[in-house]
Amino acid sequence: METFEPMIHEDSFPGHESVLDPHPDWTPRYPGSGRLEGKVALIAGCDSGIGRAVAALYAREGADVAIVAPFEHDDAQQTLKIVMIEGRRAIVIAGDLGNETFCEQAAAQTVESLGRLDILVNYAGEPHPDEPARGIDGARLLGTAQAEIRGMALMAQAARPHLGPGTAIINCTAATHHGSGALPDDEAKEGAITAFTHSLSEALVADGIRVNAVAPGPLWTPPNAFRAPGGDSPKGDEVTPMGRPGQPNEVAPAFLFLACEDSSYMSGQILRPNGGTIVSG
CATH code at 76? Predict the structure, then answer.
């Protein structure tokens, strides 16, 4: 298979989970109940943090997992081992999600290696705090749009021929999609992901493919930790009404709910595990 180089360097975002202290808590909290038995999930764009927690929970619930990441570094390999310890099959596919050919080959490789494709989790995260308006970096905005919005659209397009009735696409946006004033670049991007989720749901729901999204609040994961001064967790009372950032395993169950039959009557919706922040609209 052709090799595709990533658009960003490995020493930039999102960073390595393995160097965070304390380590994020990705471990599933409960025994599995077979809600994804026999399913195959492709998790695109995240090999640690939320992606690791989702992969671990999906595996515990019976799914085999393909991990598509920009780099096949230690985080990706650790996530692969976690899935296999749960008794499920797993593969890592490294490459550029902004490349249409790579996305097509990643979806095809998932089906070839694991036999089918039932769940696509579209994730990418690279928050950049800015001064409102004056701090907007046009080049960076285009770069994150290429890496995330374009990547999500290309991955959904690549997965579509392999998805049938009863399958699911779950996009990951963020609490900033409703606008906070502190992250104008990021808020524009997350708002676009929300609109993309609504539009894709309308396009695919008649084919039995459900499209939803999860919009987490601040989490103790590499993107959030590395943007904080010194890599420390932000002050609790400045983060959420609960007074702390969340852990990946507090968000992963939202991805499980949207992937399994428990959410069979939901499409075009946004779930918000955000530590108590009230979002209207």
Answer: 3.40.50.720
Assign residue 76 a region: left if phi > 0, alpha if psi is -120 to 50, beta otherwise? Answer: alpha
**Each residue's pLDDT expressed in tens, for the chain with a length of 281 residues:** 444 444 333 344 445 655 555 677 889 999 999 999 999 999 998 778 899 999 999 999 999 999 998 876 788 999 999 999 999 999 999 999 989 999 999 999 999 999 999 999 998 655 444 444 455 556 655 655 666 788 899 999 999 999 999 999 999 998 654 445 555 566 677 788 999 999 999 999 999 999 999 999 988 765 554 444 444 444 444 578 999 889 999 999 999 999 999 999 999 999 999 999 888 75
CA dihedral 90, 193, 129, 126 (to 10 degrees): 20
Residue 92: inside a domain: yes
Residue 254 gets which letter from DSSP?
H
Q: Is residue 243 part of a domain?
A: yes
| DSSP-assigned states of every residue in 203-251 | HHGGGT-EEEEE---SBSSHHHHHHSGGGPPPPGGGT-TTSS-B-HHHH
Phi, psi (rounded to 5 degrees) for 191: -60, -40
Domain that holds residue 146: 17-271
The residue among 218, 226, 210 whose CA lies nearest residue 250 is 218
Cis amide bond preceding 14, omega within 30? yes
CB-based contacts of 169, cutoff 8 Å, min separation 6: 119, 120, 122, 156, 159, 163, 200, 204, 209, 210, 211, 212
**Residue 277 burial class via C-beta count within 10 angstroms: exposed 0-12, middle 13-18, buried 19 and up:** middle
pTM: 0.83
Whether 6 is covered by a domain: the verdict is no
